[in-house]
Amino acid sequence: MSRRIFRYVAFSIVQDVTAEPEYAARCVSGDESECGAESGVGHHPAEVEEWQRKHTQETRHVRYRRNFADYAVMEPPDGLPVGLQPARVARVRA
Questions:
Q1: Which of 70, 79, 89, 91 gets the most CB atoms within 10 Å of its CB?
Q2: Bridge-partner residues for 69, per DSSP?
Q3: Taking Cα atoms as reference points, which of 58, 25, 27, 56 lies closest to residue 39?
Q4: 10-residue mean pLDDT series, the chain (94 residues)
Q5: What is d(CA 77, CA 12) in angstroms, rounded to the nearest whole number?
Q6: Measured in whole angstroms, how far is the alpha carbon of residue 27 from the centre of its chain?
Q7: What's this model's pTM, rounded to 2 decimal places?
Q8: Phi-psi region of 36 (alpha: psi -120 to 50; beta: other; left: phi over 0)
Q9: Which ranges constitute the DSSP H helices of 1-94?
């Protein structure tokens, strides 16, 4: 009979600072159908917010769907080797 030992390691999930986050908005205002105008992708929320302000001034549309995307990395706790993989299984014979 074999047993498995699962070791829990508390990795942290952090934003990957080597990749810029992405922000975008799409106008969903409209009575019959959505406007559908899009801001395009920006790397700072202020870029997208400025597009929303201008679009509202031009159209009086006030409802937007906003999207945010980023990359995340798993970081081991201090003192553990960086190459350690989460959820490793060690088999132990009884």
A1: 70
A2: 22
A3: 25
A4: 71 92 96 94 96 97 97 82 55 53
A5: 7
A6: 21
A7: 0.67
A8: left
A9: 45-59
Q: Can you tell me the distance from the alpha carbon of 68 to that of 15, in angstroms, rounded to the nearest whole number? A: 13
Q: Any idea which residue has 């992405």 for tokens? A: 22
**Token pair of 23 as six digits:** 């922000």
CB contact set of 15 (below 8 Å; sequence gap of 6+) = 21, 70, 71, 72, 73
- Cα distances from 89 to residues 17, 25, 79, in angstroms, run 30, 43, 20
Residue 12 near residue 74 (C-beta atoms within 8 A):
yes
- CA 4 to chain centroid: 34
